[in-house]
Design brief:
By secondary structure, the protein is mainly alpha-helical. 72% of the residues lie in helices and 0% in strands. It is built from ten helices and no strands. Helix 6 packs across helix 7.
Length: 198
């Protein structure tokens, strides 16, 4: 079966990049294996199907987003609005040197697969819900500490997730990753709002 010690993570990494760049349906198993330097026998040892691979790739990307975006952005002592600016800025930094802007991994899969595969849709929904709950906790903690006025933390968190996904989509449409950085100010305005509704 060849190199099995790191075959699985290499398959997940290759799948993450290819699904991000080309989409799920446009990428075949052989292309994934070639990119990972893994033979098909190894692929089927770890993943019975391409669908099983995408489900595992989603989990792997969640960990990457957590380590590279969520933890750095929301582990600092800067004001809460600045934390959300950092979240957008870190995504911009991760994408600025790529040849083209490929959007958000989870957003891309949602657009492509959510109406065709209920299991994938549910998994993606749980990710967006997890982001919303995480943002809501950050906002609620700031309200309780007196750093923000009282606001509807749930709706504000949902709006921030929607802003991020919309920014990623626009950045992809215009092939301009700077949109992510530009719209970070809108996130700041949302967090600093004084109304209890949006």
């Amino acid at each position: 079966m060849g190199r099995t010690s790191d075959a699985k993570p290499r398959l997940l990494a290759a799948a993450g990049e290819l699904f991000q760049d080309k989409g799920y349906h446009a990428v075949g198993i052989q292309e994934i294996c070639d990119a990972a330097g893994v033979n098909k026998g190894s692929f089927y040892y770890f993943f019975p199907s391409k669908r099983d691979l995408v489900l595992a790739a989603i989990d792997a990307q969640v960990e990457i987003y957590q380590q590279e975006l969520m933890q750095p952005a929301f582990s600092s002592d800067v004001p809460v609005a600045e934390q959300f600016r950092q979240f957008f800025h870190l995504m911009y930094l991760a994408r600025r040197n790529l040849a083209s802007c490929t959007g958000c991994f989870f957003g891309n899969l949602t657009l492509e697969l959510s109406t065709h595969d209920e299991l994938v849709r549910g998994k993606l929904q749980s990710i967006f819900e997890g982001w919303t709950l995480g943002f809501e906790r950050v906002l609620q903690a700031a309200v309780e500490a007196g750093a923000l006025p009282k606001l509807d933390t749930r709706r504000t968190a949902q709006a921030l997730v929607a802003l991020f996904e919309g920014s990623a989509l626009l950045a992809k449409a215009y092939n301009d990753v700077s949109i992510l950085d530009d719209l970070s100010q809108v996130a700041v305005n949302l967090v600093n709002q004084t109304s209890s509704t949006i």
